[in-house]
Design a protein that fits this description.
Elements (H helix, E strand, L loop, with lengths): L1 H4 L3 H67 L1 H12 L8 H17 L3 E8 L4 E6 L2 E6 L5 H4 L10 E5 L2 E9 L6 E9 L2 H10 L6 E6 L4 E5 L8 H13 L4 E4 L2 E8 L4 E8 H50 L16 H60 L3 H17 L6 E3 H18 L4 E6 L7 E4 L4 H12 L6 E9 L4 E8 L6 H12 L2 H4 L6 H13 L6 E7 L3 E9 L1 E2 L8
Parallel strand pairs: 13-15
Antiparallel strand pairs: 1-2, 1-6, 2-3, 4-5, 5-6, 7-8, 7-11, 9-10, 10-11, 12-14, 14-19, 15-16, 16-18, 17-18
Helix pairs in contact: 2-8, 3-4, 9-10, 10-11
Length: 592
């Protein structure tokens, strides 16, 4: 750190610009590369997702075709009768000539319609023979071990369309049931070449590193097209298929591969696509390389620009620094701008102006000290004047007692208390007890003024008297009552002040009077004025005292409906409620 401080401005500027430029270029490049990678990665994954979906639809269509071919043997009445006769007759190992001819013709017709079929087999499940139809001919041969794969199959699995791997061929099986007792009587199988499925799998792969596998409903591998470096264990594949088969997304990234799983026709076939993560990185390599080269070029340009910039702009600053070292406070030579119109010229001119202003500031400093002392004397004088007024009121009170005029003494004492309370600027918050004492002095003077017509009722518990409230918030409310509600009312004037704690432990002060009330339109206007924000409330043209109290409370306690609310009825009186936070005064003996 010390070494950096001792470097010249030119080197500091160069280092700062290099650091900033390299950091910004690196940051922007990194963010761009990250966004590009994620965008292209999502796009490539989306493409694979669409490919798997296309394969799912294609296989679904192929399975529908095979189901239709199998059901042709069940919807043809003659063929179904021949099968029932052979499989449920007395001679279950024999087949009459006409029935045999019709069945062979039906099998050969199905084989001839699909170039991928090598042969078809019709098994008598209650006998020991199978009708075998090949492209070279047809024959009735013993079943032997041909049905071992079917007999070992779980009985709970479906039987209308089942796929098996038989050497290099794919076997497709369909079981025929007795319509009346729903018992299996025959099994039809197709031996299919895998070339068409292999072509489909090869077309769907986007890169040679991808692997795509097709399984039957027993999770047995039917056909696969593995990538160049694919190495999956059967346990790994089985675990992934089991997990994805229960998941909603049916996609997962694990073991460095993106796995996509789809089920065809309710699980008759299952498709699993594995895309290595490095294939996506390889697809992004050109983009990332281009971004990296652009970043390197930007860094080189930034370095060259920083060097040139530091040389061009630091030299006049260094020259100005050398001149400033030799200039005295009362010397203005050598600080002219030399005709420069840029910021350096402005600095040179400003330095000369600064020297001139420094001399003025020195003189102003002495003058400010003198003015400060005068202000202190005036403040002392301002403190003397209120004390003089207090003393004068006390003299008047004493004289009134000597002259046997106790009313004058009471009024002067109350006025003295009011002046002492209102002119005390020691704090904004006071105890409710002090505010009420001031209020009583104010009402005593008003009572004398209006001919002893005022009756004050206090309903406040002793514990609430210690609550601290903003100073002078009750007197404006009473003044509002005198001006707008009581002044035009004959008879006794009743004012009731109540205090209580709300359910939220806030302090609620309520002032009721028995005045003439406020007209409805003026009341609505006043209520809307009190609901406005504090700044607008302070601009009120009427009920200034009430609005001022509301504004002070809302500025002191923002939110939670703190402030002043008013309600009134013509001929019955007015009620003003003041809601504040209940903050108790901490007495000296309660402090820790």
């Amino acid at each position: 750190m010390k070494i950096i401080k001792n470097l010249s401005v030119r080197k500091k500027l160069l280092i700062s610009m290099l650091t900033l430029s390299v950091f910004l270029v690196t940051l922007i490049t990194s963010i761009a590369a990250f966004i590009t990678y994620n965008t292209m990665r999502d796009q490539l994954i989306y493409n694979r997702r669409m490919s798997v979906r296309w394969l799912q639809d294609r296989l679904d269509m192929e399975l529908k075709n095979y189901i239709d071919r199998f059901y042709e043997f069940e919807v043809d009445k003659e063929i179904k009768t021949d099968i029932n006769k052979w499989c449920q007759g007395k001679e279950k190992n024999e087949l009459d000539y006409k029935s045999k001819l019709r069945l062979i013709s039906a099998l050969n017709e199905t084989i001839s319609m699909d170039s991928n079929l090598n042969s078809m087999e019709l098994y008598n499940l209650s006998g020991d023979y199978v009708l075998l139809a090949e492209r070279s001919g047809a024959s009735l041969v013993p079943t032997g071990e041909r049905l071992s794969y079917w007999m070992n199959r779980d009985a709970s699995l479906q039987t209308n369309l089942v796929f098996f791997k038989s050497g290099k061929e794919i076997t497709i099986a369909h079981q025929i049931y007795n319509f009346y007792n729903n018992k299996p009587i025959a099994l039809i199988t197709m031996q299919m070449r895998p070339f068409e499925i292999q072509d489909i799998l090869e077309d769907i792969k986007m890169t040679a590193d991808e692997s795509i596998m097709i399984f039957n409903d027993q999770n047995e591998l039917i056909e696969a097209d593995y990538g160049k470096e694919a190495a999956f264990s059967s346990a790994e594949v089985e675990g992934i298929m089991e997990g994805l088969g229960k998941a909603e997304t049916q996609e997962v990234f694990t073991g460095g591969n993106f796995w996509f799983y789809r089920s065809v026709k309710g699980g008759k076939l299952k498709v699993l696509l594995a895309v290595p993560d490095h294939t996506i990185l390889a697809a992004l390599s050109n983009t990332l390389l281009g971004g990296f080269m652009a970043a390197v070029i930007a860094v080189i340009i930034s370095v060259i620009a920083s060097i040139l910039f530091s040389r061009v702009y630091s030299k006049p600053i260094i020259d100005l620094s050398a001149k400033m070292r030799t200039v005295m406070l009362n010397d203005f030579a050598g600080v002219k701008s030399e005709g420069r119109q840029d910021e350096i010229g402005i600095l040179q001119d400003s330095f000369g102006v600064m020297l001139e202003r420094n001399q003025k500031l020195i003189m102003q400093e002495y003058q400010s000290k003198i003015d400060k002392r005068d202000a202190q004397l005036q403040a002392l004088q301002a403190q003397i004047n209120p004390h003089f007024m207090y003393n004068t009121l006390q003299v008047i009170g004493g004289m009134s007692l000597k002259k046997q005029a106790p009313e004058i003494y009471t009024v002067t004492t109350a006025l003295s208390d009011i002046m002492r309370y209102t002119l005390n600027f020691s704090g904004e918050m006071v105890c409710l007890r002090e505010e009420i004492h001031y209020l009583q002095s104010y009402l005593m003077i008003q009572d004398e003024r209006f001919g002893n017509r005022i009756e004050l009722v206090l309903d406040i518990t002793r514990d609430l008297m210690d609550c601290r409230i903003p100073k002078l918030i009750l007197q404006p409310i009473l003044e509002n009552s005198f001006e707008h509600g009581l002044s035009n009312k004959s008879g006794k004037w009743s004012i009731c002040l109540r205090g209580q704690l709300t359910d939220k432990k806030d302090l609620l002060l309520t002032v009721n009077d028995n005045g003439i009330g406020i007209p409805f339109d003026k009341l609505k206007e006043l209520q809307e004025m009190l609901l406005n924000d504090a700044e607008n409330t302070l601009k009120a043209e009427s009920h200034i005292g009430l609005c001022n109290v509301n504004s002070r409370i809302r500025l002191k306690y923002p939110g939670d409906n703190y402030g002043v609310t008013i309600n009134s009825r013509i001929g019955e009186g007015t009620t003003v409620k003041v809601l504040l936070k209940a903050v108790k005064e901490i007495k000296p003996h309660e402090q820790i």
